[in-house]
Amino acid sequence: MSPSTNSASRREQLRQEIAAMPDWLRRPVGNASDISTVQQVIKRKGIHTICEEGRCPNRGECYARKTATFLLMGATCTRSCAFCQVDKGHAPMPLDPEEPRKVAEAVESLGLKYVVLTSVARDDLADGGASVFVNTMAAIRQRHPQTGIEVLTPDFWGGKTATHTPAQLQRQRVETVTKAQPACFNHNIETVSRLQGPVRRGARYDRSLEVLRLVKEFDPSIPTKSGLMLGHGETEDEVIEAMRDLRAVDCDRITIGQYMRPSLEHLPVKEYWTPEAFERLGAIAREMGFSHVRSGPLVRSSYHAGDES
């Protein structure tokens, strides 16, 4: 098959996948002026948001509500999760020492009421990037103290020293961020236990649960949160089991949304869960004791995050 024929075939495959997408996943991305305003600011500052890097379908709505999710430490991840839109597969960007200031200036310029700070995984850094979270939180509080700050961290697993195991390093890094007192500490398990390997390459279910457990050990007053993306072939019983595992480590909040394939290079969607199924799972989550539940096809990790503060 020639390259042009192969390219045409892939375009046709993508067209068919889009056509097969159910109606409930089709919606406008929001007010164009709200999106443009944020895009201009982040481009001018040379910073990143997961809203744009991940092409979140809710970004226009969130921008209008004066919330945004900033992507720290560059746009290249050291992991290779098979579902994620974020860039990967080559050397990560050098850290920008001015990034905390730039993010804080963007928050002030946009008048954001609530921000979520997330990051690519940076297994190449001595502290996994924990200090960047802390420094960015401090910079925002200095310039715009009324802004609520949630963190959505990687699992902080990686590296080894002569005196510390990976588990000890993870513990130190989680403690560092927890001591900075975020309004909420979020870490996503993403999928059910059985599917962690093919979906989250380089991550492990137990390591993710440990992040959430450690936060409560260090400061029980800080709300914890996690998220699941459905559509990888999980069963409802497996989703319920994952929710039970989260409650077992005292996770307070949960988001449940539909996985949508970013490109043909990513994992295909195995199933589109119906709005009714999401409503049912949301009701089960509330019965389990989650204090805040967002469950719906277009729900993402930071969806309406500021409403929970």
How does this model look, in words?
- By secondary structure, the chain is of the alpha/beta class.
- The protein has a single domain (28-308), classed as Aldolase class I (TIM Barrel), CATH 3.20.20.70.
- Helices cover 41% and strands 14% of the residues.
- The chain contains eleven helices and ten strands.
- It has helices at residues 3-20, 32-45, 50-53, 59-64, 99-110, 130-143, 166-179, 196-199, 205-218, 236-248, 275-288; strands spanning 48-49, 67-72, 76-77, 87-88, 114-119, 148-152, 184-186, 224-230, 253-258, 292-295.
- The chain has an eight-stranded mixed beta sheet. Strands 3-4 form a two-stranded parallel sheet.
- Strand 6 (148-152), helix 7 (166-179) and strand 7 (184-186) form a beta-alpha-beta unit.
- Helix 7 (166-179) crosses helix 9.
- The chain is globular, with a radius of gyration of 19 Å.
- The mean pLDDT is 84.
Write the layout of secondary structure elements.
Elements: H1 3-20, H2 32-45, E1 48-49, H3 50-53, H4 59-64, E2 67-72, E3 76-77, E4 87-88, H5 99-110, E5 114-119, H6 130-143, E6 148-152, H7 166-179, E7 184-186, H8 196-199, H9 205-218, E8 224-230, H10 236-248, E9 253-258, H11 275-288, E10 292-295
Parallel strand pairs: 2-5, 3-4, 5-6, 6-7, 7-8, 8-9, 9-10
Antiparallel strand pairs: 1-2
